[in-house]
User: Which sequence fits this backbone?
């Protein structure tokens, strides 16, 4: 993406100039930033890429209407994907599995790790709802055979079943499996697999751009004092400490 | 699972199959059962096997069949029919996915032609489902071979590749990957313009790219003509596309791009030989070895195809620390069959030539994993482990250091001689062949494992591959050992068996049997005496084989054996004379003259050595033998050889002539 290149070239240019730790004033910095030309269309594409990958269909449609940016994927397919994601997020894993299989039966047949994680999530939901017997039966019939096929799965299964041993899960060392974050993790794994099956990037580009910004600032910190961005939600420049 | 509890539960296999087969339930309920079945088996190998045993596949195929023949309905029922088609095709595809027994059941039930008709269905989703399932079937070895040489078939294939439907184009490519084997098929595909179409798919979706790379590799493999067409006038472009793809984001695409490039460079030595691409391929594969999924399972096999029999590539891989990575794989795979097999194969390739590789492997404690790998459930893993041991033990230094001499390796390895799989037996014999050479350090260990008895029994195997390796191992066992050990070998083997091995129908067995005899009679008079004995049957067997064969290797080994025998006592020498001066059948020449006139310098050398042993001046009967040799025309023959182009022959011929002349003076 051209945007990355421009920003990095600019910053590396600064690096080269600094023999000892150089101080760059706010005025100089802003002048340099103003010299960097970023095309509006590129910014728009970045936003659209984020909306599509994260599955914000309505926002994507509105953004297309307002900015004229074309999404690189059929928006209708996003709806199906979001339904799957929502089903996992709300604990309806069985429903999610059926929807994935309708979308493309190859996904779960050729991705044992994802299939195991969905089944594991099903087990977690049974335990959460206090269906102990059903949970045990499910673990034995559906998950144990996967554990036999793969040592890693077996370990994860053992961890999950350990949830049953604690009456008060707040004291359970594997209690985090019951957190909403576990659902989100599984949901995002399914989301990524569906995207890959549709030949689409599984991660939006925006977060990697942010990561790159942080990395570049860290690099630059060693060589220069400059107005850095610390609050990423506002992207405000902070005056360099002198 | 307890069968008694199963029938009442709605999701249980028996009930579900019952509903699928029942004529009395509404079609809507059938559709629901179909979908249930599909959702139960996807991703679940255990369920697939359970349903296979219950005969689910024929039930599903018959539903697909009746739905397919009931086309042309309108309104609601069309949508309903399409759903039945989609669900049944998907269920069939899942049975075929990653399970050969499933593929077999699907093919036996006649699903193949039905799925083919779905591809051209107007409803894109139906076409998708049909193409996906066929694609999964074509990933199995059991899929029917597609005949490209029929014009009609080639047209159909092209129509698949030109389809707008992504799954259909991928299916076309999968058919090529599965079925393209002969040179003729490769040429036919190339002439039909398939390559151009495949290259254009390299710019498509992920699955199209992958399918196209795999088929390109299959079409080019081992066919220089097709390779040059691919590289042809506007080739740079196609090749560059593939080279770009080894840096693709998707690991599977990177792996297949490597596979495609390796297929090209292994086909012709003029492509992709620069050091840049060599090390790039090694580095990309090195990184893929660490992939936790299927790509990581397949990467060592692709690596093996890159380095096998190529010392330069092995060196590059060594320098890139590939060995450490492969060994790490052994630490972490918890013995998963496919990856273990690939890892040992690649390590075996690395150890095939370079001593530095062997040292590195042995230092990295790989041998600790051998015991378990040798008794692994999978025959492929056991065979790969033996092949690795064979190559790792190709080192005099390590053998002398006794690196392989411990019970943890020897005992399970000797047990593999009786493996249920022939390839494992052959590979184990190959490893033992190396390990028994000159194992002066601790010979008793293998003997204690009963290796001698095992080898003797295997030398009588019905499988010629096993006979050859068993005799080969016996030969190495007999290499430079004491007469007592030779006696032990021969008394276990018996000279009758040895004679019949010398006359084995397979030339490769004859060769090994002759060189085993050669090793047994090598050395002291005692050895010759013990092996040849008084009756001379063995010498006769050797002579007979030499008369009847035309294989150079057999002739050479046989002649050297005679030469060793000719160093024995007067009786032995006499037996050898008889063989040398025999004319077989309608032959006008004796074995001796024929051998001296051979175009193979090694055979000439061996024969002259035999003559030297027969005419040694200090033997009592030499003068009698010299007389016989003179009248058989030896002198004029040897005189022709004093300027032999082969230096060895030239020197030995002069030496033999000198000995003959010492006695010959008396004759003239």
Assistant:
């Amino acid at each position: 993406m051209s945007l990355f290149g421009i920003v990095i070239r600019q910053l590396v240019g600064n690096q080269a100039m600094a023999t000892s730790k150089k101080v760059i004033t706010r005025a100089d910095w802003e002048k340099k930033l103003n010299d960097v030309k970023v095309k509006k269309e590129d910014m728009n594409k970045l936003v659209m890429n984020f909306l599509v990958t994260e599955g914000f269909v309505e926002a994507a449609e509105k953004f297309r209407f307002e900015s004229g940016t074309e999404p690189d994927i059929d928006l209708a397919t996003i709806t199906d994907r979001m339904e799957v994601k929502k089903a996992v997020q709300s604990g309806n894993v069985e429903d999610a599995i059926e929807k994935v299989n309708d979308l493309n039966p190859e996904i779960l047949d050729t991705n044992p790790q994802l299939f195991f994680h969905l089944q594991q999530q099903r087990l977690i939901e049974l335990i959460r709802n206090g269906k102990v017997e059903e949970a045990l039966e499910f673990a034995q019939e559906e998950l144990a055979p996967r554990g036999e096929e793969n040592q890693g799965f077996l370990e994860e299964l053992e961890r999950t079943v350990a949830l049953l041993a604690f009456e008060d899960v707040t004291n359970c060392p594997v209690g985090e499996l019951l957190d909403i974050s576990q659902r989100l993790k599984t949901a995002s794994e399914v989301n990524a697999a569906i995207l890959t099956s549709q030949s689409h990037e599984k991660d939006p580009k925006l977060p990697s751009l942010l990561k790159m910004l942080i990395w570049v600032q860290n690099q630059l910190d060693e060589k220069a004092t400059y107005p850095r961005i610390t609050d990423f939600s506002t992207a405000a420049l902070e005056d360099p400490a002198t | 699972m307890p069968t008694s509890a199963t029938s009442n539960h709605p999701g249980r296999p028996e009930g579900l199959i019952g509903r699928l087969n029942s004529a009395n339930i509404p079609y809507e309920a059938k559709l629901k059962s179909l979908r249930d079945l599909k959702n139960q088996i996807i991703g679940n190998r255990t369920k697939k096997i359970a349903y296979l045993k219950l005969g689910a596949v024929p039930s599903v195929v018959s539903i697909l069949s009746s739905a397919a023949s009931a086309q042309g309905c309108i309104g609601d029922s069309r949508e309903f029919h399409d759903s039945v088609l989609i669900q049944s095709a998907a269920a069939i595809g899942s049975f075929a996915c990653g399970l050969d027994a499933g593929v077999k059941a699907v093919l036996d039930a006649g699903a193949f032609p039905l799925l083919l008709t779905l591809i051209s269905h107007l409803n894109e989703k139906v076409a998708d489902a049909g193409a996906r399932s066929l694609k999964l079937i074509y990933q199995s070895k059991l899929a029917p071979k597609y005949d490209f040489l029929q014009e009609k078939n080639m047209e159909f294939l092209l129509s698949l590749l030109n389809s707008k439907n992504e799954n259909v184009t991928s299916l076309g490519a999968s058919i090529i990957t599965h079925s393209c084997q002969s040179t003729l098929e490769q040429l036919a595909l190339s002439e039909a313009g398939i390559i151009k179409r495949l290259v254009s798919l390299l710019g498509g979706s992920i699955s199209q790219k992958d399918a196209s790379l795999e088929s390109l590799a299959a079409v080019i493999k081992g066919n220089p003509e097709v390779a040059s067409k691919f590289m042809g006038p506007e080739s740079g472009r196609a090749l560059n596309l593939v080279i770009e793809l080894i840096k693709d984001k998707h690991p599977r695409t990177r792996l297949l791009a490597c596979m495609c490039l390796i297929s090209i460079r292994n086909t012709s030595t003029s492509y992709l030989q620069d050091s840049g691409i060599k090390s790039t391929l090694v580095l990309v594969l090195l990184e893929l070895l660490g992939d936790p999924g299927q790509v990581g399972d397949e990467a060592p096999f692709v690596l093996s195809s890159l380095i096998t029999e190529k010392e330069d590539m092995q060196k590059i891989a060594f320098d890139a620390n590939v060995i450490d990575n492969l060994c790490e794989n052994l630490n972490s795979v918890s013995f998963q069959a496919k990856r273990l097999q690939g890892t040992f194969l690649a390590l075996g390739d690395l150890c095939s030539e370079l001593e530095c590789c062997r040292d590195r492997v042995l230092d990295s404690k790989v041998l600790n994993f051998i015991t378990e790998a040798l008794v692994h459930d999978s025959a492929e893993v056991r065979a790969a482990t033996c092949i690795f041991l064979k190559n790792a033990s190709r080192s005099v230094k390590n053998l002398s250091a006794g690196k392989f001499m411990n019970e943890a390796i020897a005992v399970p390895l000797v047990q593999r001689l009786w493996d249920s799989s022939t390839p494992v037996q052959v590979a184990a014999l190959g490893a033992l062949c190396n390990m028994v050479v000159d194992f002066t350090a601790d010979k008793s260990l293998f003997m204690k494992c009963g290796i001698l008895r095992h080898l003797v029994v295997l030398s009588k195997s019905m499988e010629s591959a096993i006979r050859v390796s068993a005799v080969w191992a016996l030969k190495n066992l007999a290499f430079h050992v004491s007469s007592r050990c030779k006696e032990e070998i021969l008394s276990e083997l018996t000279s009758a068996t040895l004679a019949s091995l010398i006359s084995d129908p397979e030339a490769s067995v004859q060769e090994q049997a002759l060189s085993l005899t050669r090793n047994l009679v090598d050395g002291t008079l005692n050895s010759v005496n013990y092996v040849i004995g008084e009756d001379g049957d063995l010498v006769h067997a050797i002579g007979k084989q030499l008369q009847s064969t035309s294989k150079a290797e057999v002739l050479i080994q046989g002649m050297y054996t005679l030469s060793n025998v000719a160093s024995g006592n007067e009786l032995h020498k006499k037996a050898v004379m008889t063989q040398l001066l025999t004319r077989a059948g309608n032959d006008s020449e004796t074995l001796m003259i024929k051998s001296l006139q051979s175009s193979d310098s090694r055979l000439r050398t061996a024969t002259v050595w035999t003559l030297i042993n027969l005419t040694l001046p200090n033997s009592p009967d030499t003068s009698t033998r010299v007389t016989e040799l003179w009248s058989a025309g030896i002198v004029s023959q040897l005189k022709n050889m004093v300027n032999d182009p082969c230096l060895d022959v030239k020197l030995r011929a002069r030496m033999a002539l000198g000995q003959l002349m010492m006695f010959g003076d008396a004759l003239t």
